[in-house]
């Protein structure tokens, strides 16, 4: 169930108070006059896409997160590579991003360009679509401030060290989040987005095949869960697209089951399971497993904070005509 309207009224001023000067130019009603049908258009497109392709919500949330963590929330991840530039989306850690998120943004942009050409930025589309999809699959509502511009830079070499990988030591993951001004608790709350979406078998295959001399799979896994993953991913080297739901219990519902799963040995990725046992993260995992309302509140607050991470406004960005290309080709 989405958070009540009163919580939105409480959350909005707290988010605005966190805004640095540039980001303070963002407002919730940025398009009210220039593109008044923006909310209705984006809602219709995401409804159609999510209903036809249920993996869209998880794909879009992950796309948004990966975009914001590199260069800020400026749609730099949407840029396609060309002869002169290898863009962010072709960095190794981004190659597994599902195409449904990219496709959704393209569909929304196309519809908006017909209604109000050259007005709505791709970064605002991605931020709004992410929030709307979270709500659509049962997660909390939260205000999205608008007025971002699309960035001028997208380079694959800028990605390394800015996005956590599931096999990284927890200390390194915490360091990445700390560099973006996120606390340990905020990191654990944001990780709750793993309640939807999926991960490819090659991201956890080392945990289920030939794990050690004494065990075929990581003993931290629930044994039946491990056997199920071994069966599912048996041919992953032949078919790299093979994947498993991040939340095996309620894969298409945004809830706190991700944290409950961690307590039961059902954490899919290394980093997930580490959160459940490390002394710095375990208290938050236990708290969110026991209290979905608290998780929703903290997740909404952290997502609001993420959504204006290093945003571009004014002359620092542009409104792209196409989300996958800069308006002017850069050699």
UniProtKB/TrEMBL annotation:
Gene Ontology process terms (BP): hydrogen peroxide catabolic process; response to oxidative stress
Binding site residues for Ca(2+) 1: 67, 70, 72, 74, 76, 88
Site feature location: Transition state stabilizer: 62
Top-level taxon in the UniProt lineage: Eukaryota
Gene Ontology CC: one annotated term: extracellular region
Catalytic residues in the record: 66
Record text on cofactor binding: Binds 2 calcium ions per subunit.
Signal peptide range: 1-24
Keywords linked to the UniProt accession: Calcium, Disulfide bond, Heme, Hydrogen peroxide, Iron, Metal-binding, Oxidoreductase, Peroxidase, Secreted, Signal
Compartments it resides in: Secreted
Domain Plant heme peroxidase family profile: 25-327
Cofactor requirement: Ca(2+); heme b
Alphabetized CDD domains for the sequence: secretory_peroxidase (cd00693)
Binding site for heme b: 194
Paired cysteines (S-S): 35-116, 68-73, 122-323, 201-233
Catalytic function, reaction form: 2 a phenolic donor + H2O2 = 2 a phenolic radical donor + 2 H2O
Positions annotated to bind Ca(2+) 2: 195, 247, 250, 255
Family: Belongs to the peroxidase family. Ascorbate peroxidase subfamily. Belongs to the peroxidase family. Classical plant (class III) peroxidase subfamily.
Function per UniProt: Removal of H(2)O(2), oxidation of toxic reductants, biosynthesis and degradation of lignin, suberization, auxin catabolism, response to environmental stresses such as wounding, pathogen attack and oxidative stress. These functions might be dependent on each isozyme/isoform in each plant tissue.
Identification of the protein by name: Peroxidase
Organism encoding this protein: Juglans regia (English walnut)
């Amino acid at each position: 169930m989405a958070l009540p309207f009163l919580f939105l009224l409480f959350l909005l001023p707290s988010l605005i108070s966190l805004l640095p000067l540039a980001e303070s130019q963002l407002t919730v009603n940025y398009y009210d006059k220039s593109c008044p049908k923006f909310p209705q258009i984006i809602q219709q497109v995401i409804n159609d896409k999510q209903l036809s392709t249920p993996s869209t919500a998880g794909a879009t949330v992950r796309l948004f997160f990966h975009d914001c963590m590199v260069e800020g929330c400026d749609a730099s991840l949407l840029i396609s590579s060309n002869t002169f530039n290898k863009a962010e989306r072709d960095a190794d850690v981004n190659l597994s991003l599902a195409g449904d998120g990219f496709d959704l943004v393209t569909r929304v942009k196309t519809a908006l360009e017909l209604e109000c050409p050259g007005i709505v930025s791709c970064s605002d589309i991605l931020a709004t679509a992410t929030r709307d999809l979270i709500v659509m699959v049962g997660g909390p509502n939260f205000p999205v401030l608008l007025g971002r511009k699309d960035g001028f830079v997208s380079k694959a070499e800028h990605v390394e060290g800015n996005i956590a990988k599931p096999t990284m030591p927890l200390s390194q993951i915490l360091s990445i989040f700390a560099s973006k001004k996120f606390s340990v608790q905020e990191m654990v709350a944001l990780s709750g987005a793993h309640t939807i979406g999926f991960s490819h078998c090659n991201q956890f295959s080392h945990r289920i095949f030939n794990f050690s001399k004494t065990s075929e799979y990581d003993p931290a896994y629930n044994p039946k869960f491990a056997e199920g993953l071994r069966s599912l991913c048996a041919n992953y080297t032949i078919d790299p697209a093979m994947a498993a739901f991040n939340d095996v219990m309620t894969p298409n519902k945004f809830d706190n089951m991700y944290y409950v799963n961690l307590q039961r040995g059902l954490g899919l990725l290394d980093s997930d399971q580490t959160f459940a046992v490390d002394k710095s993260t375990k208290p938050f995992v236990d708290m969110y497993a026991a209290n979905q309302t608290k998780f929703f509140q903290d997740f909404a607050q952290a997502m609001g904070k993420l959504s204006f991470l290093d945003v571009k406004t004014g002359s620092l960005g542009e409104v792209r005509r196409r989300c996958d290309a800069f308006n002017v080709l850069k050699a």
